[in-house]
Design goal:
Length: about 270
Amino acid sequence: MAFTRATGKHRRASRSARTTRNLAGIATLATSGVVGTLASPALAATDAARTQDTGLTQAVVLGDELAHRLEVQADAQQAAAEVAAVKAKAEAEAKKRAAEAERHAEAARKKAKAEREAKERAARDAERKRLNAFVAPVTGSYVSTGYQASSSLWSSGSHTGIDFHAATGTSVHAVGAGTVVEAGWGGAYGNNIVIKMHDGTYTQYGHLSSIGVSVGQTVTPGQQIGLSGATGNATGPHLHFEARTSPDYGSDIDPIAYLRSHGVNV
């Protein structure tokens, strides 16, 4: 036996109404002779007939109750299916949102990494440029005596470097990056420093009043290495600066051309 429900929001008929309809159906069957052919005429007015009629009534009521239960079960199954569908949809949407959030997070991580690497490259480039840069040995000064100037003041008869005007105690800087190979008394140069530069040349700083570095120390462009003075063979305070091909006296080259070739205008 199959049971169907009409669609739409219709209320189910009451049990008494359903029972009445079922009894009416039975009465119709009885009138048409279906029930009458099954029952003996002699039993029509007896208690047995009433008992049989009551049994039929109970059977109809039980059938109606079964239909009601099946309908309730169908409603429960449909409700459960709807809940499951809503839950599945919510889970799918949650997974979609989580995946989208992860994509955004991954994109943010990649962007942050790219920005960090760009900053690191920029910092390395800046440091490389700084280390390769050259500066004047005395800030804001000028050359008071040029290269190879002639005078009896120098044992070679000519000036092996250039002199920068500087009062005693003026800061003297390394013109570029390098390693100190000499720091101490240098005879006619007084207190002097010699630095081997990164490009393999040498620079020398003489007549210092004090020395601020030691042999083996690395220096960077613009780093203070000492203070100017008038020690050694000097008529007054100044900085004697030389550019050399070796750390030794006599290997001097034009210091102005040397500084200008490294971007320093003097």
